[in-house]
Amino acid sequence: MDLSLSDEQKQLQDAAERFVRDKYAFENRRKIAATEKGWLTENWAQMAELGWLGMAFSEEDGGYGGGPIETMIVMEQFGKGLVLEPFLPTVVLGGGMIAKAGSKAQKEALLPPMIEGKKQFAFAWLERQSRYNLADVSLKATKEGNGWSLSGHKGVVYNAPSADHIIVLARTSGSAREEKGLTLFVVDAKAKGITRRDYPTQDALRASELTFDKVSVGADAVLGKVDDAFGVVEDAVDHAIVALCAEATGCMDAINAATLEYIKTRKQFGVPIGKFQVLQHRMVDCFTNAQEARSMTLMASLKIDDKDSVVRRKAASGAKVQIGKSGKFCGQSAVQMHGGMGVTDELSVSHYFKRLTMIDLMFGNQQHHLTRYSNLAMAA
Amino acid sequence: MDLALKPEHKAFADDVRAFARANLSPATKAKTFSGKHYDKDDHIQWQKALGRQGWLAYTWPKKYGGPGWDVTQRFLFENVLAEEGAPRIIPFGPKMVGPVIYTFGSDEQKERFLPGIRSSEVSWCQGYSEPGAGSDLASLRTKAVREGDHYIVNGQKTWTSFAHWGDWIFCLVRTSPEAKAQEGISFLLIDMKTPGVTVRPIVMLDGAHHVNDVFLDNVKVPVANRIGKEGEGWTCAKFLLANERLGIAEVPSSKRGVRSLRDIARAEPANGATLADDPAFTAQIADLDLQVQALEMSELRALSTMALGGAPGPEVSSLKIRGSEIQQRITELTMEAVGEYAAPYQPGMLFQDTNETPVGPDHAPPAAPRYFNFRKTSIYGGSNEIQKNIVSKMVLGL
Amino acid sequence: MDLAFTPEEQKFSDEVRAFVRANLATDIRDKVKNGKHLIRDDYMRWQQALGKQGWLVYTWPKKHGGPGFTPAERYIFENICAEEYAPGIIPFGTKMVGPVIYTFGNDEQKAKYLEPIRKSTVWWCQGYSEPGSGSDLASLRTKAEKQGDHYIVNGSKTWNTMGHWADWIFCLVRTDPKAKPQEGISFLLIDMKTPGITVKPIIMADGGHEVNEVFFDNVKVPLTNLIGKENEGWTCAKFLLANERLGIAAVPQSKRGVAALKDIARAEQDNGKPLIENQSFAEKIADLEIQVTALEYTELRVLSSMAHGGQPGPEVSGLKVRGSEIQQRITELTMEAVGEYAAPYLPGLLWQGSNEEPVGPAYAHLAAPRYFNTRKTTIYGGSNEIQKGIISKMVLGL
Lengths: 380, 398, 398
Ligand SMILES: Cc1cc2nc3c(=O)[nH]c(=O)nc-3n(C[C@H](O)[C@H](O)[C@@H](O)COP(=O)(O)OP(=O)(O)OC[C@H]3O[C@@H](n4cnc5c(N)ncnc54)[C@H](O)[C@@H]3O)c2cc1C
Ligand SMILES: Cc1cc2nc3c(=O)[nH]c(=O)nc-3n(C[C@H](O)[C@H](O)[C@H](O)COP(=O)(O)OP(=O)(O)OC[C@H]3O[C@@H](n4cnc5c(N)ncnc54)[C@H](O)[C@@H]3O)c2cc1C
Ligand SMILES: Cc1cc2nc3c(=O)[nH]c(=O)nc-3n(C[C@H](O)[C@H](O)[C@H](O)COP(=O)(O)OP(=O)(O)OC[C@H]3O[C@@H](n4cnc5c(N)ncnc54)[C@H](O)[C@@H]3O)c2cc1C
What we know:
The complex is a heterotrimer. Chain A folds into 3 domains: about 5-120, Acyl-CoA dehydrogenase/oxidase, N-terminal domain (Butyryl-Coa Dehydrogenase, subunit A, domain 1), CATH 1.10.540.10; about 120-230, Butyryl-CoA Dehydrogenase, subunit A, domain 2 (Beta Barrel); about 230-380, Butyryl-CoA Dehydrogenase, subunit A, domain 3 (Up-down Bundle), CATH 1.20.140. Chain A has a 4-stranded mixed sheet with strand order 1-4-5-8, covered by helices on one side. The longest helix of chain A has about 35 residues, at about 230-265. Chain A has helices spanning about 5-25, 25-35, 40-50, 70-80, 85-100, 105-115, 230-265, 275-305, 310-335, 350-360, 365-380; strands spanning about 120-125, 140-145, 145-160, 165-170, 180-190, 195-200, 205-215, 220-225, 265-270, 270. Helix content of chain A is about 50%, strand content about 15%. By secondary structure, chain A is an alpha+beta fold. By secondary structure, chain B is an alpha+beta fold. Chain B folds into 3 domains: about 5-90, no CATH class; about 120-230, Butyryl-CoA Dehydrogenase, subunit A, domain 2; about 250-395, Butyryl-CoA Dehydrogenase, subunit A, domain 3 (Up-down Bundle), CATH 1.20.140. Chain B has 12 helices and 10 strands. Chain B has a 4-stranded mixed sheet with strand order 1-4-5-8. Chain B has a 4-stranded antiparallel sheet with strand order 2-3-7-6, with no helix packed on it. Chain C is an alpha+beta fold. In chain C, strand 9 and strand 10 form a beta hairpin. In chain C, helix 4 (about 70-85) packs parallel to helix 8 (about 250-265) and helix 10 (about 315-340) runs antiparallel to helix 12. The longest helix of chain C is centred in the last third of the chain and has 29 residues, at about 280-305. Chains in contact: A-B, A-C, B-C. The interface between B and C is small, with 3 and 3 residues. The structure holds flavin-adenine dinucleotide (FAD) (3 copies). One flavin-adenine dinucleotide binds near residues 129 and 376 of chain C. One flavin-adenine dinucleotide binds near residues 32, 34, 88, 161 and 366 of chain B.
């Protein structure tokens, strides 16, 4: 048993830290967020050059043989800088599913360009009625000659405006909410019949509503087995959850550091407000919460590739519960301790707060994952 | 002891409801129920209607032009208006500066300022906080120097809600820098059109603009605009604070908030049914509902003491604390009810006159912004930490 | 990074389990498993078995006669002992005074005191707190005055855990009443059989007797019993505190507690089904289990950095706070699981030999006493408020 980083992992951490320091000073981030596409091509290219887009993939897929720990390391730093480049949808979700379920041809066509920074992905699973149920999918794919025709709606698809390919979760058989009967398709983002409504999100990312109107794709668009995508999707989403947890941990470190600094310098009643015991104890609780979040993220990163699927799923849900709880506590506390300044757009705290809030809502909030964890623990 | 309403009170509630239905513009009402931003007209038209009816200054005694209602009537009035979706009465005139003027002002001042407040002809805003004086209000530094029959005012106010709509601002200013912090402060009314007054918006975390910085650069203010004696402004400030405590718990709008939340839960799909069928979620609403009821009973107990001529007891002091926490919790659960559809940022959708269509359901666009924005309720009007310090000192004797 | 045990760690783990199974008497194991009170002899039998194996002082370095476990081995040892229902090791000798003696004591003192601690032939207790000095320990007033080659000790100590079973007590005493509070304190070892010492029981909220008052009336203590220099006792006290922080989170015991809670929830009925099938109760257990996991991984992170030569970082400081809250939560949920059958008060049943019949299931009568008793965990060893004060100052620099 050893929970320390290897030398290479430490170097990765240093590099990611440096990237965030150089590119994501708060005012810089504000500028990036205000650009049309909401992220910078040059940053993406640099991530490719540093090997981050390929680090979690095996060498035979063109990657560098790392895994969830490497993802955790960079995501944590991304959280500290509120990095906007679409690493999660492209690399963790898109790349992850292709590596897991893709045919040799699909991998060859998609992974190396992704690793080089030339292709981006978006994962379209959510629909208006889905809430957090990954199987609640009604977008239909019907056989059409050799290929398929896709019709239906997908919502809050992160990175859809920039993606080259949309990975679509569709129903090919079975009834509503049945796990069996789901199929993944890799669809060209510009395919005929796709209409997009793009918008920014509360935390300055970009997403879209997508309407599919008889979008034709070939048989080779199917990712993995027909009717059998659920396991792949659940696993990819669990990996994404763990990556999000790492990002949230970074956010918490940053928001706590900013708050600590603020209460040391802001004076009222002739003293720094950090001299008031209520604020001291609340600040301590913030740090304890962040420590717990870090611990659960580490646990989940270590277990997310476990052989036993119950272990994997419990790990992801357990960590997500912690992140929801800790993120809310640190976010709300930071705003409160900043007083009026906390509710303005001006300081970084409110931006970390918004990101932490949205992370809780992504792929199932605290309550959802508590239920899932509880059911898994019961069954075990 | 009796919780039931007397017949005359029932009739009163019916009158208020009929009035609201006849006078509240449907567009304004729609904004309330969809969580959209009001514009100035929404507030002013409604407040003018109330003013014409003699109800805007509903907490005032008869002799200053108020309706002279008993506490039950006030309670009913607030609740019925909330149920009917009326905007909150902007408190700065009718609830704040008005009572200060009729309590501490001269007869001329009463004649000059009260009618405009009662009718909502004149909009007021509150100039207390400064960049260096938030929780520690008494450390304020905006100074007013006497020159003949004017004060020359210099300094900066901040967090001023609705200053961009305000005709007048009431300010705490330092008239005697030598005196002890609380003793050198005076209460001044300033016409916002006076040269030297500049208003600059502060953008909030949800992207909205409610609050402002107000810069005062050699602003000439007639001495006649001072309320009370020079150096006794702190007395007015404290009076206002006490006056503010009741009603600040926002119970009627929280009751409406819980109802809206249940409606949203009924509308939100979840696992083939709705969120209202999810016991984990409905239990959270139930918990909130019980918190609101406890708060309402505390308020009713205070009102009942007052109806018998007593002073509100210690139980009032924590109303603001619990009230703000409950308001925040409503917005938090509302956002959770909306789920991932809370993510799309559609600031345009927060205003009525937009032809944008919502991403997701109609109730989704305001959900996250309201949650973010409502973090303010435990900060403004004296943060909850400050409120607890007050309770600890004044009530518990610690 | 790797969660799996190395082959050596796995081998060690097997060895520990075999040892505990062979050496922990069944009657003791059953008492621990069923939550009965242990008596002095139970602890001594188990600790002496560990002592023979050289494992009792498992945190000590080799050069002082400890086994020199790696952090991973410590973790394994603690977990297996808990899993196998071994009694907790009484810390006063092994974890508190022992390390103080080998760090600050002279060679004679080491020769005299360490061996009986390693072998558990002497029972120690801790004499820090006084009626007037709890959180503010440095205000203590028990005084020791030099008379020839003795100190004469007068005063009283309180909250002495298991003082009624102790052979020796280590005390903080005031040797210089004129110095600043922290600077006039010395660290003294006192034989409990010395004339002038009286022990008086304190009965706890659950009816149990585990703590005492200890009175010192002209107690003669040889100067050779002073550890470190005179007036430098505060250094020993602070060292002990730091030494105590790790392991105090009681994670292995909490894991055992959650497992026991689940067993009870499986046995208890709720609407015709086992309570554990009640979704909302199951989720409360799940939440607790996640809290325990978070705490465990925090501890593992610390152990791992220590294995690489690092010092325990700021994350340790929160361990006691969270650990104690979790212990309390376990007892609270256990009591909730038992429901109304937690009410019968059957103190006799807390002892093994009782032939009283339980009312309701055998575990029920324990639930409330344990809940009441465990409130102590956020108070003793420096209350959680004091812990947060320490973190705020030492870690956050506030
Ligand atoms: C998704 C959704 C959620 C909803 N949630 C709720 C809910 O939680 N509760 C509810 O009642 N209705 C709710 N509704 C209904 C309705 O939108 C609001 O009640 C409505 O009254 C708008 O309130 P407001 O805070 O914007 O305006 P007001 O309460 O009128 O306040 C306007 C502004 O005044 C300022 N202000 C207020 N008080 C003070 C003070 N003491 N000192 C200084 N400045 C101050 C603030 O800057 C504030 O933003 C909801 C509707 C939807 C669709
Ligand atoms: C939306 C909004 C609208 C507002 N509208 C108005 C307005 O119209 N007019 C106006 O004059 N003002 C207005 N305010 C200002 C408001 O009253 C102040 O923000 C508030 O008093 C807190 O001051 P601050 O922001 O400077 O925070 P600070 O005083 O800097 O407080 C920062 C943190 O320290 C804590 N703290 C401070 N002192 C203590 C203490 N002694 N013990 C424990 N904790 C302490 C606070 O609770 C807070 O958590 C508004 C504020 C907001 C956010
Ligand atoms: C079961 C049990 C076993 C014990 N065993 C021993 C033992 O073997 N040997 C021994 O020497 N002692 C022992 N103690 C004593 C224990 O260490 C003290 O109880 C503890 O330090 C608290 O002191 P107190 O009880 O006097 O509470 P007080 O110090 O009076 O504290 C009362 C409350 O005030 C709070 N408080 C005090 N100061 C501050 C501050 N500055 N800021 C914020 N909050 C504050 C505390 O957190 C607490 O909530 C034991 C106690 C218990 C309950």
